[in-house]
């Protein structure tokens, strides 16, 4: 296959992915057809919370080759036009998939491609612009110096009122609400029912798709001739990964290997980018509590179905 044929196949695959994306999106958020260089564009929604303010949201048109640095520069002009002269290093862009699942994007990453890959994984997320707090001090210093002349002209009564307002502002910033992670506020102040990219609630759409996919997979595992089922659910314990979520239930076939199960578990615990070689699946014999580390090609569900009362 020559380079031209490969590019044509890549373009067709990209076109199909974009068509699937557009099928569940409002017209405003539809992506364009890819050109011969596999470039396309679309409108994306971004969120930002300034100090002491409610979360704001803006929509901008983004090209597929636009990097995080390019997007941040545009977002600063949209959210904070008075901050355009500040260094881009003062801001970062994050993708979030819930209050406890967020990742900082690298400057070279391309947000529109990141977003399109969510659809391929049946996920939904949001983009959040954050101001790095370690730069806030220098910004406040600049503002204070700029206002020094003005403050010296205030009367005693005006100074007293100003101090009172500053004190109230500090007390307000110390409340639990202000100390909550911004990603958590993003999903509480702007819940799933808010206007988003999807024709209907995007998170609910993705949950329904995952449920339908699981039901189809389970139907394939069920025996049609009275023989043993070829798959089922298996509870995998992972309290060492997250004590608050002691286990996850996976839908597996008897041929699914420990290596595949491990990757799926890391994904479910939000650790998909971690190296699987640093983790293992352990079989525990409940009769004597002995442990055995499964090899990558061993099949956990097949083991449990063979010894249902001894393994977990």
Automatic annotation (TrEMBL):
Q: Name one GO biological process term.
A: regulation of protein localization
GO MF term (any one) = cell adhesion molecule binding
- Region Disordered, as annotated, extends over 156-178
PROSITE patterns the UniProt entry points to: RA
Which superkingdom heads the taxonomic lineage of this protein's source?
Eukaryota
Q: Which residues form the Ras-associating domain?
A: 40-130, 230-312
What CDD domains is this protein classified in?
RA1_Afadin
A Pfam family annotated for this chain is RA
Locations of Basic and acidic residues compositional bias? Answer: 158-178
Any one Gene Ontology cellular component term annotated for this protein: adherens junction
Tell me the PANTHER family matching this sequence: AFADIN
Please report the name of this protein according to its UniProt entry.
Ras-associating domain-containing protein
